[in-house]
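Quick one, tokens below:
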């Protein structure tokens, strides 16, 4: 049920404008760490979207409720990698995934922001929603405590495979955290479909950014 009242939050200005010769770099600070993100203008997935800021902020401020230390975390549609980097800083074993064309920028951001840290080294892998999941991520060896997704729902045709991917990775014991900017009726339709499959709660809303953060877990019989 979605009846629990979500926390109403504001996305804080966690990025710190730096005098920089590069127009394509964004600077953020989460959990006491400076994070520098290179965006790429060619791809949708290569820009920091508001859902990523919302989830990063929420994970940073709710570490007791969602303790990522030594947990296995999978991010789907990782984009620029901000959320995966924050999860890594918070101590998780992170696997960041996205489409092949996004992986180069994603790997670059993740390695440059985590290389000097004393934490679990994140893994970057290709994952096309709904394709080759059994082969690439066999259930026997790939069980995740958390599945993270931000701004994965917008005007696109991949909503069926996205939902199938969420279903595939959400096993008993897995928590799906999904943050999204709600713009279109398709966003609300997807939410409705998610509610039909999982136990779903709205954890937080960021009204100024039209972002909702949802938690979903598999229904156990």
């Amino acid at each position: 049920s979605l009846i629990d009242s979500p926390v109403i939050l504001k996305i804080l200005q966690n990025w710190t404008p730096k005098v920089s010769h590069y127009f394509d770099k964004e600077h953020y600070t989460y959990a006491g760490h400076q994070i520098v993100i290179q965006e790429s203008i060619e791809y949708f997935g290569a820009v920091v979207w508001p859902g990523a800021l919302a989830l990063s902020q929420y994970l940073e401020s709710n570490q007791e409720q969602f303790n990522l230390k030594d947990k296995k975390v999978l991010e789907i549609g990782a984009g620029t990698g901000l959320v995966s980097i924050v999860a890594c800083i918070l101590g998780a074993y992170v696997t960041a995934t996205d489409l092949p064309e996004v992986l180069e920028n994603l790997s670059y951001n993740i390695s440059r922001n985590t290389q000097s840290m004393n934490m679990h080294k994140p893994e970057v892998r290709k994952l096309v929603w709904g394709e080759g999941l059994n082969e690439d991520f066999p259930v026997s060896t790939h069980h995740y405590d958390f599945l993270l997704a931000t701004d994965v729902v917008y005007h696109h045709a991949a909503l069926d495979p996205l939902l199938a991917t969420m279903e595939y990775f959400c096993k008993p014991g897995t928590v799906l955290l999904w943050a999204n900017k709600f713009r279109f009726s398709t966003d609300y339709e997807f939410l409705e479909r998610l509610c039909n499959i999982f136990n779903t709660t709205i954890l937080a809303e960021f009204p100024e950014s039209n972002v909702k953060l949802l938690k979903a877990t598999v229904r156990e019989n």
